[in-house]
Design brief:
Oligomer: single chain
Largest sheet: 2 strands, antiparallel
Structural class: mainly alpha
Strand content: under 5%
Length: 284
Amino acid sequence: MSRLDAKTSERIAFALLGLAALLTVAPIVLIVGVIAAKGGPAVSGEFIFAAPREGMRAGGVWPALVGTLYLTLGTALVAVPLGLAAAVYLSEYAKDNLFTRSIRIAIVNLAGIPSVVYGLFGLALFVLFLRLGSSIAAACLTLSIMTLPVIISTAEEALRAVPQSFRLVSIGVGGTRWQTIRRVVLPQALPGILTGVILGLERAAGETAPILFTGASFFLPALPKSIFDQTMALPYHLFVISTQVPGMPVKIQYGTALVLLVFVLSMNVAATFIRSHYRRRRQW
């Protein structure tokens, strides 16, 4: 009787878990489907590679797409080395004391700060105090600070998940601590590290508030020529054409949203392939 009850409970638990998964995935699939259905007809070669014209009511998204690529790459160049170095220090070198635990708590709390706060911080520090002006450099540095907590937390967890026996064997055969980290720990933790990096960069690519204060422009007739120029960006461009341009064709709004969605999803797909490749080579 008790065994039957256990099986019934198991079925109920599985049913509830399946229902919860369905309720989570269904809205996402619905949103993506609506954007693809309404934005698909607007996407063409001209839409991708042309600049906006006629008050943004015609043309394409090329300057915004290139600007988003610049911002994402700039953020990666700053945030990934710093975040990975901080994660290695916290995981492999720092002692487990009150100071280290306080740093970890601060990092977790920083990940929950609204993006608009990072935008105001970037405006005060990079745009005004350091006099970088409203530029790609200021926007990338602001997005990097916003992205760092995610990269540090996930990379540290990936490093700590590598079995301690790997380190002991490497040091036991004469390797130094740095050689052990570089040749044993980092390769084994790479799938988890990549997950954190991509999650952070995806958030940076889709944010509007931080770049609104630090480097995004309403409209530019040409692509930026240096990191000290302003740039257009897809999230801000979508915000502008959805709220600031009267008489805007709906299909262009959805088409821009679709391009941004594909941009972010392509990063995710690339990361999945890379992560799967290195996960197959993992030895535990």
